[in-house]
Amino acid sequence: MFFENLLEIYQKYKSISAELVVIFLIFINFIIFFFYKSENKARIISVVSILGLCFAISFLPNNFSDDGILIFNQMYLINKNNSIIKIIVIFGVVLAHLTIVLMPKKDNGVHKFSNFELPTLINFSLLGILIAISSNSFLVLYLSLELQSLPGYILTAIKRDSSYSLEAGVKYFVLGVLSSAVFLYGISLIYMVFGSVNYEVIADILMNRGNELSMTALVGIIFIMFGLIFKLASAPLHSWIADVYQAVHSTVLTFFSIVPKLGVTYVIYVLYHFVFVGKYFSYITTLIGFFAFCSFFVGAIGAIRQTNFKRLLAYSAIANSGFLLLNILGDLSYSFIGLVVYSFSYMIASYGLISFVMYYWNETNDENNYLISDLSGLAKTRPFLSISVAGLLFSIAGIPPFIGFFGKLYILLSSISALHLTLAFCALMTSVISLVYYLGIIKVMYFTERNQSQLQEINLCRYSNLTVVYAILSILTIFFVNYFVNFMI
After folding, report:
1. Cα(100)–Cα(231) distance, rounded to whole angstroms?
2. Residues 45, 50, 51, 57, Cα dihedral to 10°
3. Residue 447 belongs to what domain range?
4. Is the pTM of this model over 0.85?
5. pLDDT tens digit string along 343-369?
6. Total domains in the fold of the chain
């Protein structure tokens, strides 16, 4: 009888098996915390999380059928596209947990990390992202984004002994709460006009009203887009990201760099192509195009002035958020493919560079840390590692034969097919500008002599091996691009 009931429950909720596994993992995290006495709880929880998340991924291919599944009173949608995005998101979180497993003990001791909270907060944030990706209602979307954001505020300020980390956490929290308030106000305006927060109901009303235009609804749509684009750190809503990138521990930055952005980007993709249609479509296109344009130039030009490696990565992330927005504006047949290929390529390059940060710098001194000048002469002492870093920089810049080139290529093809030629040209031009600071880092590693007074390298550790592995993946994964594209088509 028990197994029959269990089988009945599984048949009813098997479409959300991945989310249920993540919830179950969070309960296991608490059990380990309360009943297992060890200084290595964070590593143990991360290992359990890695195994559990790999198990969660195994359920998602079951949702690859062409027909979507609507559950929970049509507030939750499961289909092939959002299941593919969930696989990439969970894979990114698995890699983030791997960095916690490899985290040096001294980092845990110096920063007084709890043996429990770091991986558990990441799992909570992951749950919010997964729910947001499948949301079919603005109410569910708002609650899921808050579930994703609240652990993020804590993770930003988790280095309790660092004034930089606490300042960045407060700044991120204040601006995040403001964006959430704007987003929620936009939802209230949408509900006031359409009498529903369900995606399909709103899309049906917009399609049937023809040329009718409600300024209240337009303001609500703009507020919703502002709230979402803030989480992408697109210019001019980017003021928080440089401080957060510099202040957070690199294990947290691994998670921050792409996983939440991918979830939010997919949400914007769904709203743009399937919900906010009809008369409002041109207004949203202009709004997203404006943010993409600003992100290209603020990210590219702002990065040139940076002397701090992590802040440079932050401005690079702003520029790359412009590519994500440009991809949303592209032709529907190419847009999803571009999102998947670009996100995966950016994840590999970003994670590789962050693993290099964790290897090279001692993360106990925010004031005099992460300086690009500290890399001088690295090619002479660590030649293979230097080649790997150079390859990752070329990949994130979009230089062939690295996977990053194909990610940007699909986005440019998508935007050109949709006749967004000006934005495509801006994207191409700023990619060329970005070579200035990427090549500048390579110049420091290969052609600048190292002074004895500069920061000394820490001993070789496992993070350097991760950097090399990511660099190799940035080349090897190009052989799977056609397979992914054909599969998604």
Report:
1. 24
2. 140
3. 2-488
4. yes
5. 888 899 899 888 888 877 766 555 567
6. 1
